[in-house]
Design a protein that fits this description.
The chain folds into two domains: 222 residues, Rossmann fold, CATH 3.40.50; 83 residues, no CATH class. The chain contains twelve helices and ten strands. The strands form two sheets. The chain has a six-stranded mixed β-sheet with strand order 3-2-1-4-6-5. A four-stranded antiparallel β-sheet has the order 7-10-9-8. The longest helix has 27 residues. The radius of gyration is 25 Å and the shape is elongated. The protein starts with 12 loop residues before the first helix and ends with a helix.
């Protein structure tokens, strides 16, 4: 990515109008007076996002930031080049750095650790400058890759919902755009993107998958993106139902035991409601995937422990006859562990 000496050409007005429509549809609250921070790595996708955001909001409300992970020798110079590009556009730009976390989300995976650093720095910067959101350039091809990877891992509905268009203060307005469409914008604006070698490095699952997908025309990328969006809407609907059911719990929801009649509910709803009940009684509980899968399929008399909570599927008599029973899920705090003899004498 050569150092720019003059402002690039503005993007096609039709592309800017499409972007404006997608912003309103994705995050209408961005139309207030606060600025936005565009995450710009220097790659083709993020440069296209920068060009569109600058054309839509102008240099006052459109800010930019580049996270230098320090993983490649060229990354510092690339960040400076993005800064110079932003200067030609009158866009405020920040280079964000910091130590790579030792571990992230329970894994030593470098990509995941870099992602954690990236979002931590971007969100802190957005807060510092009073921005309404951080915009990232994830697009429809990213959605396809994410969906295939998660299918291969046996993900449930939440995982198959793919990359969220809005996640807190992170907004991704380009999920309906293809990589090819964004490349056209970058080219027509006269921008020269950075070529990150990690995108072609076979050590990374996504890079290998991207090469495979490039050899086939079986997938309609835009159609897959629409399907993933529909899955996301189904995920949100189920979450809303689960939240409503939990709002009906007696008291503040922390009284134990909690008895819930979950008869005739789909397995997925039972899991969601159960996880919310567990979280109310033990916010620190971190159930494993295998435990979550069991939650919706307990048989009468079975129980399992999640953190400090015991979940049991019990049959409670409806009356004194002992002949009619009411099947319930019961959530109770586990009895406090008695100290060992050695611990008691310490």
């Amino acid at each position: 990515m050569p150092t720019p000496s003059a402002p690039p050409e503005p993007p096609d007005p039709l592309a800017v109008a499409r972007f404006a429509h997608d912003v309103v549809r994705t995050a209408p609250w961005l139309d207030d007076a606060k600025p936005v921070v565009v995450a710009v790595s220097g790659g083709s996708d993020s440069l296209a996002l920068l060009a569109l955001a600058h054309a839509h909001w102008g240099p006052v409300r459109c800010l930019a930031a580049t996270v230098d992970h320090g993983l490649r020798s060229a990354s510092a110079q690339e960040a400076l080049t993005v800064a110079r590009l932003c200067a030609t556009l009158g866009i405020g730009h920040a280079i964000l750095i910091g130590p790579l976390p030792d571990r992230a989300a329970g894994t030593a995976n470098v990509s995941q650790r870099a992602r954690t650093l990236r979002y931590d720095r971007l969100m802190a910067h957005a807060s510092a400058v009073g921005a309404a959101a951080v915009l990232t350039a994830h697009h429809a091809d990213d959605q396809l890759e994410t969906l295939v990877m998660r299918l291969n891992r046996g993900s449930g509905l939440a995982g198959l919902s793919g990359i969220r268009a809005v996640n807190g203060n992170v907004v991704r307005p380009l999920l309906g755009w293809t990589r090819a469409e964004l490349a056209v914008i970058t080219r027509d604006c006269g921008l020269r993107p950075v070529d990150d070698p990690a995108n072609a490095d076979d050590r990374y699952d996504r890079a290998r998958l991207r090469k495979v997908l490039a050899t086939t025309s079986l997938f309609d990328v835009a159609a897959v993106a629409r399907s993933v969006a529909a899955l996301g809407e189904a995920e949100a609907a189920l979450d809303a139902v689960a939240t409503t059911r939990c709002a009906e719990l007696p008291g503040d929801g922390t009284v134990t035991p909690l008895d819930l009649d979950l008869r005739d509910l789909p397995v997925d709803l039972i899991r969601r409601i159960s996880l919310r009940c567990v979280a109310r009684l033990d916010p620190a509980a971190r159930p494993r995937r295998s435990t979550i899968e069991r939650l919706g399929r307990l048989q009468p008399g079975e129980k399992l422990s999640i953190g400090d909570v015991v979940v049991a599927f019990e049959r409670v008599p409806v009356d004194g006859s002992g002949e009619v029973f009411w099947p319930i899920y019961r959530f109770a705090l586990a009895p406090a562990r008695r100290p060992t003899r050695n611990a008691a004498h310490n």
